[in-house]
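Q: For a teaching session next week I want to show students how multiple molecules come together into a single three-dimensional assembly. I've collected the sequence lines for a complex. Could you give me the predicted structure tokens for the whole thing so I can convert them for display?
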Amino acid sequence: MSGGVDSAVAAARMVELGHDVTGVHLALSKNPQTYRSGARGCCSLEDSHDARRAADVLGIPFYVWDFSDRFAADVVDDFVAEYAAGRTPNPCLRCNEKIKFAAVLDRGIALGFDAIATGHYAVLREVDGRTQLWRSAEQAKDQSYVLGVLNQAQLSRCLFPLGPDTAKADVRAEASARGLYLAKKPDSHDICFIPSGDTAGFLAKHLGSSAGDFVDEQGVVVGSHAGSHAFTVGQRRGLHLGVPADDGRPRYVLGIEPTTNTVTVGPHEALAVRRIDGIRPTWAEAEVLGSWRGLVQVRAHGAALPAWIEGRTESITVLLDDATHGIAPGQAVVCYDGDRVVGSATIAATAR
Amino acid sequence: MATVSERDYFDHAAGAPLVEVARAAMDAVWRLPGNPSSLHTAGRSARRLLEESRETLAGCLGAHPTEIVFTSGGTEANNLALLGASSRPGRPRLAIGATEHPSVTGVIERLPGRVDVLAVDRDGRLQTSGLDVITERTALVSTMLVNNETGVAQPLEQVLAAARAADAWTHTDAVQAFGHLPLDFADLGVDAMTVTAHKLGGPVGIGALVVRRDLALAAPGFGGGQERKVRSGTAMVALAVGFAAAARAAVGDRETEAARLGVLRERLAAGITDSIVDVMVNGTAPVSPAVLNVTFTGCRADDLLLMLDAAGLDCSTGSACTAGVHQPSEVLLAMGRSEAEASSSLRFSFGPTTDDAAIDRLMAALPQAVARARAAAL
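A: Of course. Below is the structure for the complete assembly, covering every listed component.
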């Protein structure tokens, strides 16, 4: 229970369905702020308080579990290390994989609980003894992408009571009708451990800054920057190249080479990608090896792109029907069969 | 989930249920108008109730009524003793025990560089070797009588002798002693002593600093100076009435109740050490009969608390939480325990509602709760 409206309503529905529910709020920050500021962050003391008050209204026990050490090691340190390696991580996905549906789930199971229920927007279906993960009916809120890293052992212990039929506006109305006063609380966005929203500043603090070059596709130096970790493949804003391109068109980050602290820039069409190589594959139900037709999603709230997918035990290769742009290594590629999640992998490399 | 009335409560040291005599005494006076500082009949009636309560409480504590300064509770009384002594001329330093309550240890941050901490041994008792930090520059020495987390009773003779030799004032936090151990302010020989109502069946919101008449404490706050010019704010008449009634009842029953609880405590301690491996009772005799602190190696204390809570048993770690997250016990750390040990300990504390059947239910629930909490911590 983050203190937000989704998990509060999810808990309410679980109670109503007759489950024996215990509310857990995760303390993920070592030094939580007293109050939430804006729509950023999700583990201030105010959020913890809001979650507790929702649990009070529902009449369920409530605890705060401290996962700040695990979160720092598995999510924050990983986030910094990935940027340092020139990749663009998705910390929410990592948190789901390592914390919420791993460390928290394991702790709950060991304590005698049967499952973990969250306010995520995704649908679970039991078919032939397996738990399938499907997109939410509410496309705009669908969170199957950030849940795409979960395996069958995890999914079989999950419950997403908001998934099947709920629109966000309805959740707010339901929270209000249930007397949960957080009904009007804004959604949280951005990265919870960077409450200022200044990712570049956060990275500069952790990785320092050192001058490096912008180069074009031919290797010609076209500018300088204060550290390659401040950039993401596909980024256009904030390059401050000074000298315009010969053709006067905007330039984008095409690649990041942290060992030489070099950032390659070029025109939009150079971002075009048809082939994606993914490592560390995970499978929602079971391995799907060999070549198969499916859809892939390469960023949260991104479009589903038709593709051939080649599944192997240690890696996958995706060949998109149509080129897409600006895929950053480090992000997850989640593979679907229609609206059903098949598996995911971490993007290691891309090619035209 | 069990309702509150079906549950067993093992957290009397945090707050004991209001005893019937205190409730009845307060019921009789809540509706009366009158500020005890007012001069009219209603004011004088209120003042009479306040002073009668002060006299009753003083009688329970072996003190003179003029020595009772009512406060909002133990924390304010401890703050008053420490801050009230901190401006003694020529004596800039304070000395406190290493296992004191946060309302005492907090003075380290409030008066940086001016506080000496008296180390304790593995049983939580002051080490005599460390008492030489008490000098003629020490304004006040504050050492608790019974520890709130472990129940360890602190013999004060040596620390009081060291303080007297240096002409330092002495204070003891007797919050957990009052009602459980014999307590007589005059016999104890300290200059100031903290007590509070809600640990012995009185209402929350009132306590007292018992303080010798010749001790010139400075007032930390300001206002009407209603309590001996060192504590301001309208006197809490009904709460004082409830405090006095609860104190009288607790002191009247003390010997029988302490003996009864002592037997239950020993039963629980023996039951835990016999039925669960890798456990350790923290603190040796003399201890309060009302507190048992146990380290369950390999558990997170808050997991164990959750499991017992789900089984209808209210227990506590006894130590501070930050944002609902249990922190390693500073008391156990000061007693030389490891971070792991200080994070895997629970406090069971007893009172009038604790009986053999409650201990039976606790002992029945503990083995599985510990096993699961240990599995969850792997």
